[in-house]
């Protein structure tokens, strides 16, 4: 993989000399790939010192490219080789495998070299600050990539430049993201600056491949014990009923979904005074092949929680907790098996954090510095809380990086965020870490359930109580698949010029559209100056409609998949409790929104299978 990135486009320039084709024509020509691989082979063989290339060319990633070439998979080669990873809503995100668009030894080295240059420019004391590197257990056997190896290569890049590296000695909850000095995920404009430095750092330094630096360098330290101890101590900030926890008869089942969550959830339960939850034995230990689930995402609900629910029934456990493989998200189910959506669980957790904050802060004046946050495609239930209780609620763009950034901004002015969430089962209770955290969320849910069951209430009953007080919030989320970028552009251009030029739709499903917010263009009809409060994101599509009947609907493109997602929610006022009619109305408007605005049949969109 080493030479691929430097020479793929430069060989295209040479190819056009011999064929009278432009570079863009060259990379569209399937014969160019044969020429490219031939040049690649000659380049490697011509190096004077063969030892210099030991470990440089990962034979498995090279074999993947060669196999695609031999089988004539030109489109797949283009997909892998003609673009690079970029920062989306959840960091530098891609599958493992060969190619510049995927995660592998080379692209991780290139990304880290760019990070080094960016950080060295940004922090004069970078050489004494250092970086923290964690890894989970993700791997792809076919490409020889695994998270630990990539972490050691990341460390090597920094260590060879005399930067201290705090590299964990074993797996920890680790999304593939980059965190800034404030503990939050990086966001704009830093992400764009880092990408620029990566593009300028494509040739690996000779020592960047030296994994042994992680073992031999005196600048490498293992922070595992210190960080874990500090984290478990900090959990005290969201533990409110330890004495009740120690006496709780409630049983919990936990699945770590073949990921890294087991040990940390067990420790967190002990820190709260609970007996540890019962682990699902088949899913307790890390396994990157995820052999017991069709999809390693607890957000999929009952279909992937089957082993957990069976074990709970055998053990007479009332609550099932499931962390995703990197343990930053949480799914919850309650006997007799109500699986809560991310929005429903947020309503419960938001209520719980507010309830306990009020218990410990009897002075109403303190409420003026309290905030809750949610991404804009998530439920508006926290907004309903804020309107009645008197604290502040703010929305952010999708992605927890924006929530982390907002937490940091609010903290600088003396304000406190006590809860934040995104609808895709990502929760942050308190602000001990400015990112979603499945471990702390799991044990906070356990304490909430224990408290409620001690009062002969279930989680589901409390959710209904919340809706009775603050209004029912019923939501749905789905998507259509569109693999043609031009079709996506055409769909959203049509919406922006629906009946006339620069005119958005005026109704949907027979209901008048009161407000339109388009964060792609920066337009918001609900603001006096028609300017969007949220940051403008020209690189993606997102339009939100607020209907007269209380439904809020958002259409947006995914930052990581060829999908157009749609989110709809009926935000009913308190007292309107005919759930079946609310659900029917939401379904009607959702269907109309999709058919009228996306036109799936006309645009050959693939509907989500049910």
From TrEMBL:
It comes from the Eukaryota. SUPFAM superfamilies: Phosphoglucomutase, C-terminal domain, Phosphoglucomutase, first 3 domains. GO terms for cellular component: nucleus. Residues 85-179, 230-333, 342-470 form the Alpha-D-phosphohexomutase alpha/beta/alpha domain. The keyword Isomerase applies. GO terms for molecular function: glucose-1,6-bisphosphate synthase activity; intramolecular phosphotransferase activity; metal ion binding. InterPro entries: A-D-PHexomutase_a/b/a-I, A-D-PHexomutase_a/b/a-I/II/III, A-D-PHexomutase_a/b/a-II, A-D-PHexomutase_a/b/a-III, A-D-PHexomutase_C_sf. It holds the Pfam family PGM_PMM_III. CDD domains: PGM2. Keywords: Isomerase, Magnesium, Metal-binding, Phosphoprotein. GO terms for biological process: carbohydrate metabolic process. Belongs to the phosphohexose mutase family. This is Phosphoglucomutase 2-like 1. It comes from Esox lucius (Northern pike). The gene is PGM2L1.
